[in-house]
Amino acid sequence: MVLRKMNRPMGRTITGFAILVGVLGLAESTHAELITIDGPGLAGPNTTVSLLVRLSDNNDPLIGYSLNVDVAPEPGAVGGLRPNVALSNFFPEKNLITRGGGFLHPVFSLIQESRDAGLFINAQELRLRPVTTASPGINDVLAQLVFDVLPGSNGLFTIGFGPFTVLVDGAFDAVPFNAATFQLFVPEPMTALLILAGAIPMICFRRHKRDGRNHSD
Fold it and tell me: What pLDDT was estimated at residue 189?
C-alpha cells in the first residue's frame, strides 16, 4: 500500500464537484484525512471484483466528495480491468452521507466511466449540510467499485486516485487528504487452479475438524 498526499492547490477547471463549488482551494490544515481501498487482492480472469473506498481519520465534516479512480497495469501485466458502472454504487448502507444524517443529491451524485477507463464518482449532500464524520463500520464508505477482469488478463494492476479526487467541507473548501493505492493480482489460469487446489484441502480439513468437534460434543 502506497500513500500519496493530495495537498496541492486545485485548478480552476475541476470537473465533477466543481459543478457545485466552482473554484476549490485547499483548506489550511495540519491534519489529513485518509482514503483507502478495501477488498480482495486476488481475482481470476473473466470474473468480477468488488472493492470499497473507505474514509478514515475524518475530522472535517463534509458536504461531498469526488473520486477520480485510475487503473494502471504494472510492467508485464496483460489484459486489464473494465469498470462496471452499472454495478458500482455509493454503498448506501454504510455511506458517509446517507448514514451520516444526509441525503445524496439525485442529480449531482453520479457514477460514470472516466476518460482513462477508470471511474469518476461524485457525491453531494442534497441540502449542502455537513454530515457526521466517518465512523469505522458505520458510515465510512465513499463508494463500492466494481470491475470486470477481462478474459486472458494476468499480472498486477494498481488502482489509485487521480488529480480530480477531492473532499469538500461545509465552507466549500477542499480538505487535505492522503490516498492509498490498492493492488490486485490476476494469476494465470494454471496458477489460479493451483491456488484453488491448495484451498480445497484446507477447507475440507477445517470442515472435518469442526465435524469431529461437534461429534465429540
Answer: 73
The span from the CA of 136 to the CA of 54, in Å, is 9
pTM for the structure as a whole: 0.79
Compute the distance between CA of residue 62 and CA of residue 140 in angstroms, rounded to an integer.
12
Decide: 180 and 30 in contact? Cβ < 8 Å: no
Mean local confidence (pLDDT), 194-213: 52
Q: Rounded to whole angstroms, what are the CA distances from 146 to 94, 101, 143, 211?
A: 16, 26, 10, 36
CA-to-CA separations, 178 to 56, 183, 200, in angstroms, rounded: 10, 17, 39
pLDDT for the residue numbered 27? 38
Cell reading at 176: 487535505
Q: Which three cell numbers stand for residue 97?
A: 452521507
Best CA proximity match to 34, nearest among 167, 153, 156:
167
**Cross-strand partners of 156:** 185
**Spatial CA neighbour of 67 closest among 23, 99, 33, 41:** 33
Per-residue pLDDT averaged across 128-138, rounded? 97
